Amino acid sequence: MHTLSLPTPFPVGPVNVYLLDGPSTSSGQASLTLVDCGPKTPEALAALESGLALHGKRIEDIRQLVLTHHHADHVGLTNVIVGRSGAVVLSHPYNIPYLADYETERLRHLPFYEEIWAQGGVPAEIIGVMEKSGRGMTRWHEPMKVTRTVDEGDIITAGGAEWRVYHTPGHSGGLICLFNESTRELLSNDHLLPDITSNAVMEPPPLGGAGGPRPKRLVEYIHHMQRIADLDPVIAYPGHGDLIHNARELVRKRIAFHRRRADKIYAALCDRPLTLWEIVQPTFPKLSHGMDFFLAHSEIMGHLDILVDDGRVEAVEDGRLVRWRAKGNS
Ligand SMILES: [Zn+2]
Hints:
Elements lengths: L1 E5 L8 E9 L6 E6 L6 H13 L7 E5 L5 H4 L2 H8 L2 E4 L4 H5 L1 H18 L4 H13 L11 E2 L5 E4 L2 E7 L8 E5 L4 E5 L27 H13 L5 E4 L8 H25 L4 H8 L6 H20 L3 E6 L2 E6 L4
Helix pairs in contact: 5-6, 6-10, 7-8, 8-10, 9-10
The structure holds zinc ion.
Zinc ion binds next to loops.
């Protein structure tokens, strides 16, 4: 397993992609697998090529590309790699619409977000900057094809070993982790990061689930973080930052952070019912970028979902607005 760090134009900084080199266990033939591939920039491509060269490899040698989730910093070079190597592309079915046509997905999502923001009492100028930043992401995407879908329990052979697929929605609905049961190594990508808590990004129900309830991404995320911690990995290879040697302890800290944040919001709601914006604004008073506003709304909605599931908070409609109220308080 080799870690290649590639630059990204995004605030998160460099992304880690992983090179697994070794015979395929089925055929015994040499086979090179890349897990995620970096953003669609000349700088990331150059870093990928020089990283491969360090290990005596070229893009043309890649047989298999695994996309852990659909975010632009993880998938952008897919077409370049497939065009030069003919590699098969593996990902969870949930990622396919985003990968196939990001702009159509973005437009499908828009009314879903607009409804939440309107109900949340978010000011028009804040909605404007969030929508602008969503449009801006289009340039980092191009249509790409998944050759083979993988889901919970499937086995991917890579680097001469078998990796079990864990579908762990939270940071994104189609996110997968890979776990090697014999060495207890985990490819955690953005499901578990060493230095930051991954945002559980608010998403509409998947295509085909029209009219279904909004997935509670933070609730799912916490559930699947615990599930991964229970595997007790000896090492986790994250999508950003250094390798993780204390996955169980890190998960404990992450879950405690979310519980503390939820408790704080609950305390504020005991004073008086609040809209989504009335919680976001004082919690994150210094935001200016559209994407940060978007992620802040995702995060607070996630904490409200936790409180609702705990039976501590309820949503009350007030005309077009939705206010969140501590139960038992009038
Ligand atoms: Zn991501």
